[in-house]
Amino acid sequence: MEGYFLQQGACVEHCLPAFYRESETCKRCDDDNCLQCDGPGKCVRCQAPFLLLDSQCVLSCGKRYYGDHGGQICLACPEGCLECDNSTGCRVCNSTTFLQEGLCVADCGRGVYHDPRNRQCKSSGPLAPGFNAKSLLLVGIGGLKLLDGSLLEVENLESYGEDLLFRVAALPTNGRLVVLAEGKEREQDHFSWEDVKEERVFFIHDKMKSRNGQFFLTLSYQEFTSEPVMFTVRAFSTQPPYVLKNEVLVVSKGDAGTITSPFSQD
């Protein structure tokens, strides 16, 4: 009959809720919780307490969406947000942004500290990172020494994550600091905490210079920088002592004789 549609054995002018029109027939939506659909897999309105998400009826919207229960629909969180309560109420940001006043931003802005642990912007950050020279740097004459945790002690490392940068405040007086990466030696005025962890930072003693020396480092995190810390270097011989000359030392009976450099050398 013209103007009517067949629905469950009856002719109707309009398809009932939860049905959609296909040619001259009303067919039931394929989602039992759907109240209105435009075709199979194309729900446009769900029954409470279900919410509409990507043409499907769900009880929970999941990550990157929040539930608008008034409209029975899942809406997208703000850009960069993984979990939110509404369009301006983000709770968790992704790994490339930071939470600031309910939104996710790539940069917290001037004078604001970004906390890498919970991905949040904070108006007051930690104090400048502190670190100590744990021990004397001992190195063989002309040799190299790894700068690792036995020499560098960072205070409250967990508060800063690993986004820390060491800078050379004063160059070594009896050698040089280098970073070894991909088989190549780079002499530079800074290195990262990751470089230290991966055992890429070395001090190389200059055998033409003094055995005793020093250098100074600072530690930076974002705009915060520590006071310079002095590292004392002491180079030692890796060779056993040996006699250079073996000459007769003439001493009269009862007298004393002095062994001087012409007679021995180590």
From TrEMBL:
<dbReference type="InterPro" id="IPR006212">
    <property type="entry name" value="Furin_repeat"/>
</dbReference>
<protein>
    <submittedName>
        <fullName>Extracellular matrix protein FRAS1-like</fullName>
    </submittedName>
</protein>
<dbReference type="GO" id="GO:0009653">
    <property type="term" value="P:anatomical structure morphogenesis"/>
</dbReference>
<dbReference type="Pfam" id="PF16184">
    <property type="entry name" value="Cadherin_3"/>
</dbReference>
<dbReference type="InterPro" id="IPR039005">
    <property type="entry name" value="CSPG_rpt"/>
</dbReference>
<keyword id="KW-0677">Repeat</keyword>
<keyword id="KW-0325">Glycoprotein</keyword>
<feature type="repeat" description="CSPG">
    <location>
        <begin position="128"/>
        <end position="220"/>
    </location>
</feature>
<dbReference type="InterPro" id="IPR009030">
    <property type="entry name" value="Growth_fac_rcpt_cys_sf"/>
</dbReference>
<keyword id="KW-0732">Signal</keyword>
<dbReference type="InterPro" id="IPR051561">
    <property type="entry name" value="FRAS1_ECM"/>
</dbReference>
